[in-house]
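Researcher: Go.
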Amino acid sequence: MTPEQHNKYVALAHVANAAFYLLGLAFMVIMLGLPAFAPDEDPNAPPLAFFAAFLFLGLIMTTAFSTAREQAATDYRVPPNWR
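Model: Structure:
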């Protein structure tokens, strides 16, 4: 495998990983956003702010974990002065 082929494979792996994260994020937004469009027939139903809080927390956690994982993946590089 040439370095160009390797770099292309790694780039496609990053794109696939981003697509997976976006798919999961879209699923979470759709599932937690559905109560906003539900009819308010049940007086004992939880308020919309309850679902909004979970949606906001989920977005923050998804962003934090994906950022931390990317940071951990780049920490393995050897500094230039060690070569």
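Model: The chain has a mean pLDDT of 78.
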